[in-house]
Design goal:
With 316 residues, this protein is an all-beta fold. It is built from 1 helix and 28 strands. Strands 1-28-27-26 form a 4-stranded antiparallel β-sheet, with no helix packed on it. It has a 4-stranded antiparallel β-sheet with strand order 2-3-4-5, with no helix packed on it. Strands 6-7-8-9 form a 4-stranded antiparallel β-sheet, with no helix packed on it. β2 and β3 form a beta hairpin. The longest helix has 9 residues. The two termini are 17 Å apart.
Length: 316
């Protein structure tokens, strides 16, 4: 999995829910299995056959997905809380404190280190690439020595909603829009470009990239802004996907996860997303909202606010 889609309690206006229910799309049965919890699913990530889940009041719970029909519970760490990113057997967890945890033995997880970070606005955004964790508002942490992480720089960018890093450029979104920073020198990030209104109603919630294009959603169910970032000093909007949902990009496809369906768009031409299909899942009650989800090569895994994990085939 390239990137986990982060942890937003997703709310769609009622009229959008009705319109999605009335849309006649594909009705492929994507559902494989379900895991039930008594508390809200706050975050999740998947790497290989390991599924990590952050559950409110229960902490971290690990599952083996070797058998998708009957996922096996491996272990739990109730004292761990926060956003999670899983890379092989290392789990990064953080908000105010960055925890690095060895889960190679799921029955007895080991906390390798804990690092207090600068996060005045309590942003829950985190992105891991190579030997660096990008977290909070806005910290770059060198984790090449996981037992002794080092905060390389802290640049005030308040209330970050999402972070994406590619080719030494950090793409940051918040209520003020898109900010692009050159992080070639991790100790001295340099502001390169800004776009205050990636969507018609301003602000930003999530960001995904494909080549020289960024896709940005906001909190007002205002569609997905399609942004040309080929010139990072002057990003500009080239279009809008008139649909809403939690956003993820995988290969040449863009997915929007809504209440009753999953919408797929082809982004072979990244500046001109093309609607492919809507996969209706009327048998699945998503009315309580999707709080988070993750994609890998074959699966879509949804975390539902009321305490369910839904394991589904990725549409083909």
């Amino acid at each position: 999995m390239n990137r986990m889609m982060k942890k937003r309690i997703f709310v769609i206006p009622f009229f959008l829910f009705l319109s999605s229910c009335l849309f006649w799309g594909k009705t492929d049965n994507l559902m494989i299995s379900k895991i039930d919890f008594t508390n809200m699913i706050e975050d999740l990530d998947v790497a290989g056959n390991t599924l990590s889940i952050m559950v409110s009041n229960e902490g971290l719970i690990l599952y083996n997905l070797s058998d998708l029909l009957t996922p096996e519970r491996l272990g739990a760490a109730p004292d761990i809380q926060g956003e999670i990113v899983l890379k092989e057997n290392i789990l990064y967890c953080g908000s105010q404190v960055l925890q690095i945890i060895d889960i190679s033995n799921p029955l007895e997880t080991q906390t390798i280190s804990e690092t207090i970070i600068h996060n005045e606005s309590q942003s829950d955004s985190m992105f891991v690439e190579g030997d660096y964790v990008y977290i909070g508002d806005f910290n770059i942490v060198d984790v090449s020595a996981p037992e002794a992480p080092a905060i390389v720089s802290s640049t005030p960018v308040l209330t970050l909603e999402d972070i994406h890093v590619s080719d030494n450029k950090a793409y940051l979104v918040n209520e003020f829009g898109l900010t692009i920073m050159d992080v070639t020198d991790k100790s001295l990030p340099v502001l390169r470009g800004r776009l205050s209104s990636p969507n018609s109603k301003g602000g930003a919630r999530e960001i995904e990239l494909c080549g020289n294009v960024a896709y940005i959603t906001n909190w007002d169910s205002d569609g997905v802004g399609v942004i040309d970032i080929s010139d990072i000093d002057n990003p500009f909007k080239v279009g809008t996907i008139k649909s809403d949902g939690l956003l993820s990009v995988r290969d040449d496809s863009l997915y929007l996860i809504g209440f009753s369906s999953i919408k797929e768009f082809s982004i072979v031409d990244s500046a001109k997303p093309l609607f492919v299909a809507e996969y209706n899942q009327q048998s699945i009650d998503l009315w309580s909202g999707v709080s988070c989800f993750a994609l890998n090569e074959n699966l879509i895994i949804l975390g539902i606010n009321e305490g369910e994990i839904l394991i589904m085939n990725r549409p083909e």
